[in-house]
Amino acid sequence: MSLGTAIYNDLGMKKGSVMAILSPNCLEYVPVLYGIMMVGVTATTLNPGYTPGEIAYQLNDSKADSIVIHAALLDNLKKAEPELIKPLKHVVVIGDKPENSEHLWYDDLAAGDGESLPKVDIDVKRDIALLPYSSGTTGRPKGVALSNFNLAVNVTQTQDGGLMPIEHGVKQLALLPLFHMYGLLMCGNIGVRSGWTMSILPAFDPVEFLETIQNDKIELMHIVPPLVVFLAKHPLVDNYDLTSIKSIFSAAAPLGRDTAELLAKRLPWVDTIRQGYGMTEMSPVSHLDSDQPTMGSVGVLVSNTEAKFLDPESHEEIEVTPGQVGELCIRGPQVMLGYLNRPEETDATMTSDGFLRTGDVGHMDEKNHLFIHDRLKELIKVKGLQVAPTELEDHLISHPSVSDAAVIARYDEFAGELPKAYVVKTAGASETEENIREWLNGLHAKHKHLCEVEFIDAIPKNPSGKILRRLLRDKEKASQAEKAASL
User: Fold this and answer.
1) pTM for this one?
2) CB-side exposure of 113: number of CA atoms within 13 Å?
3) Domains in the chain, start-ordered, CATH in brackets?
4) Is the pLDDT of residue 136 over 60?
5) One MF term in GO for this entry (predicted)?
6) What's the pLDDT at 75?
């Protein structure tokens, strides 16, 4: 409350103004966020890995006039300042306080009097409390306007339906980035509400990650699929005692059945390996698996949420029957207010009857478990037949010589498109690209056969673990152009 009081009274920020947060995970992150929102100021969270240009873009687009920033990132902010439309009014710094600093310091503001917290008239359903930015995989990132009601109701949907533990004192690993909605919900909102004991890591380091699990006896982990692959396949894992882990929850990108089963086999003492599904635009959760998960599924709808499916080609609504594939659409109280200052993009994302078009293609089984196939725009069309890259990637990762993989479409004059795989080999693997291609093709129908496997050092991904296929598509186009020029 002290920070909220200082933001309102000392800094003069009022309801409707915007304050940015630029910091890696740290103890101060959640108190800063709550302090901003409790006095009606909108918080916008930035990726600490952003370049100066990306920082400037979000500060300008969100119209943020002040920022709370970690001391380690001050140089990047300084480099961004020439691109700002207007100078920042206040810069509040988290970290050690140097002498003769021109900035305000978090510790000073947080040490003030919290008893005089102002009474601010907040419309919890309509006022923008949080303004995270979408990943920007299509076009520039967009501000996603979320209300206090959106955020609070999604905590209730996620936890009170029995889909997430509520026991006080559960030891949780807080590695997910708190600027991202998945990390904010599970580690910030639910973790704080439940009184979990959180071990906070600012970034992923293999040794620190495993040592923290072992030494702090972590029981609950919310992670992303690349970390599931790490735990399932990396040789370092065998050097640590991870038997304290009771539950692993994966989200933010699809986790295939084969990968989940590999992890279950390697860590047999883990009671549950579950998935969930959501988007920033849904605050973020719409689906969660139960404590008796269906491998490969992202679970069932959370409470007070509706789903429907659209035909991927005609975009007309289709009947929801087991196995019927379509674009998932969601309606519920957790769905965003809209994109900031982008009414046309908001209208294109929302249907006339209030459903959010997710852009993800999937199906439900007879028990209403949802299975995500892929992004609508990332499906590969081979002679008119759809191929989901994630299906092929999941099988590739199950191969002992493959530590990571990504599949994209390559243009083909006769088939339209053909799937091509980029593969990261495990250390010491002797398999050739052709060996792996032939092995995978033997598992699938002809239209899903890979035209090529190319070894690569690392698969490019965003902070939430989603594959940045556009970078691989650009790499493939450049390769094809080079080949054409040499003919």
Assistant:
1) 0.84
2) 5
3) 2-122 (3.40.50.980), 148-376 (3.40.50.12780), 379-486 (3.30.300.30)
4) no
5) CoA-ligase activity
6) 95
